[in-house]
Amino acid sequence: MAPLSSLTFDTAFRPEIGAAVALAPGLARVTAPNASPYTFTGTNSFLIGKDKVAVVDPGPEDAAHLESLHRAIDGRPLTAILLTHTHRDHSAAAADLAQRCSVPLWSGGRHRLSRPLRRFERNPIKRSCDWGLIPDRILVDGETITAGDMAVMVHTTPGHCANHLAFGLPEADILLSGDHVMGWNSTLVAVPDGSMADYFGSLEKVIALPYRQYHPAHGGPIANGPAHAEALKVHRHMRNGQLLAAVGNGAKTLGAVVRAIYPTQPARIRLAARMTMAAHVEYLEERGSLTVSRGILGMRLAPA
Fold first, then answer.
1. How far apart are the first and last CA of the chain?
2. Which position among 14, 115, 220, 271 has the lowest Cβ density within 10 Å, counted as fewest Cβ atoms?
3. Is residue 192 reached through a cis peptide bond, with omega within 30 degrees of 0 on the bond before it?
4. Strands 144-147 and 137-138
5. Please, which residues have CB within 8 angstroms of residue 246's CB and are 6 or more apart in sequence?
6. What letters, b where the CB count within 10 A reaches 16 and e where it falls short, cover 268-295?
7. Which residues, 6 or more positions from 35, have their beta carbon under 8 angstroms from its beta carbon?
8. Do 247 and 302 contact (CB within 8 A), yes or no?
9. Tally of CB atoms within 10 A around 6
10. How far apart (Å, rounded) are the C-alpha atoms in residues 211 and 98?
């Protein structure tokens, strides 16, 4: 099935791993050496501030990346560590850096599921989640915090996971969008860790916010963030339509749906697609558009 939206992805981003790249006054990016099919060119850590700084998403447990962050801090006072969310490619280094530098850790709270597990269900990305990380402060939607020596707005953006945050820099007209909106690919939503309903709600939220340029946690900057977020919303609704069409044409299992929608994709892409399609199934079921029966062998799908 051919895509129906105008969404385009920028896969040309090639960061200089470990180097501090100035993005705007008081904002720099340092990309970690953890490239993978799920992290693209690596996790982007950000430094906010001029004379004092805060680090956003210190990234994976990697000695070289921590050293790169220390070089970028360059002796300036570090005031806090902020997390967009608690998937380990963003947060695994947070406790070590906070302890070393004696600074507090701020986030949207401990890692949690978007809803309780159902009978026979498992969290497919359980090992990628930082369950034991406890923040010193839980950030609240709409509050203004001081990160380094700059004002930052906190925006809750659940969907990719329940405790996801985006950080707005009003002076720079920039939103640090984490994994919620990225330019290189659509966002993985894996239930029950994430929620497609929450993801749609958070897309609507950021589209309405007054920030034009987005800097995601993977990949390069997005020049017109709200337009890209709108295209992502159209794309995800297009996938809803494709899923309903596949079921209407006789697909009764999640695997059959994935084969119908992604007939030529390699196995690693189909694995991510299967997780996100499960989130679409749940979204459509909640809205009465799809009938789902669940058992120990998986789910069976039927038109509503």
1. 22
2. 14
3. yes
4. unpaired
5. 256, 257, 260, 261
6. eebebbbbbbbbbbbbbeeeeebebeee
7. 41, 42
8. yes
9. 10
10. 29
Q: Closest Cα to residue 34, out of 45, 25, 43? A: 43
Distance CA 153, CA 114 (A): 23
DSSP assignment of 180-203 equals: TS-SSSPPP--TTTS-HHHHHHHH
d(CA 211, CA 225): 7
Q: Are 217 and 29 in contact (CB under 8 A)?
A: no
Reported as a single tens digit per residue, the pLDDT across 46-55 is 999 999 999 9
Q: In this structure, which amino acid lies at residue 29?
A: R
Tens-place pLDDT, residues 188-202: 999 999 999 999 999
- Per DSSP, 109 falls in state -
By residue count, the chain amounts to 304
**Pure H helices in 30-146:** 63-73, 88-91, 94-101
Q: How far apart (Å, rounded) are the C-alpha atoms in residues 283 and 277?
A: 10
How many helices (H) and strands (E) are present in the chain, helices listed first? 7, 14
Q: Residue 100 in contact with residue 93, Cβ under 8 Å?
A: no
Q: Which of 148, 39, 162, 170 is nearest to 107 (CA)?
A: 162
- Whether 157 contacts 202, CB under 8 Å: yes
Render pLDDT for 81-118 as a digit per residue (tens, 0 to 9).
999 999 999 999 999 999 999 999 999 999 999 999 99
- In angstroms, the CA 32 to CA 41 distance is 8
Q: How far, rounded to the nearest angstrom, does the alpha carbon of residue 219 sit from its chain's CA centroid?
A: 12
Task: Please tell me whether residue 172 adopts helix, strand or coil conformation.
Answer: coil
CA 31, 29, 61: angle at the middle one, nearest 5? 40
Query: Cα separation of 272 and 245, whole Å?
Result: 20
189, 114 contact by CB (below 8 A): no
